[in-house]
Write a structure and sequence with these properties.
41% helix; 17% strand; alpha+beta; 136 residues
Length: 136
């Protein structure tokens, strides 16, 4: 079964929620001669140093509320300051934001207000956007 949490989201969770210093871990691996570590290599070291497994991180992220948010197609879920970005049915990032009331947001933008071309005069356009002024 394919994971509902991306590698990026797991790394951000470890870094921002659990306090694991991923940059320092990468520097340590580089000092040991591992120039471009894979996610599996990073997770092996995270498990050895901090005791976190991939499955444990997924279990922490994928609460019933998060699963419901994924199933209805939400783009963002704020859980009291921990904001999960969701795309294509997967948690793609973890951001620590302002604590507050949980909110849900769909990824749909409001339709833009359409303005007929006749409503805009050349003077209005060039006054608001000087780079579009006509010279001559």
């Amino acid at each position: 079964m394919q994971s509902l949490v991306t590698v990026h989201a797991m790394l951000r969770w470890l870094e921002r929620i659990e306090g694991v210093d991923i940059k320092q871990l990468r520097r340590d691996l580089f000092a040991d001669g591992i120039v471009n570590p894979t996610f599996a290599t990073i997770m092996w070291h995270v498990r050895a140093r901090h005791g976190f497994t991939r499955e444990a991180i997924e279990a922490k992220i994928l609460s019933p509320l998060v699963m419901d948010a994924i199933s209805v197609g939400l783009a963002k879920l704020n859980l009291g300051g921990v904001i999960l970005g969701i795309n294509s049915g997967k948690v793609i990032t973890v951001i620590v934001g302002e604590p507050g009331l949980p909110y849900l947001r769909t990824g749909k933008k409001k339709p833009a207000k359409k303005i007929a071309q006749e409503e805009l005069s050349e003077r209005d356009i060039s006054a608001s956007k000087p780079w579009r002024r006509k010279f001559g």
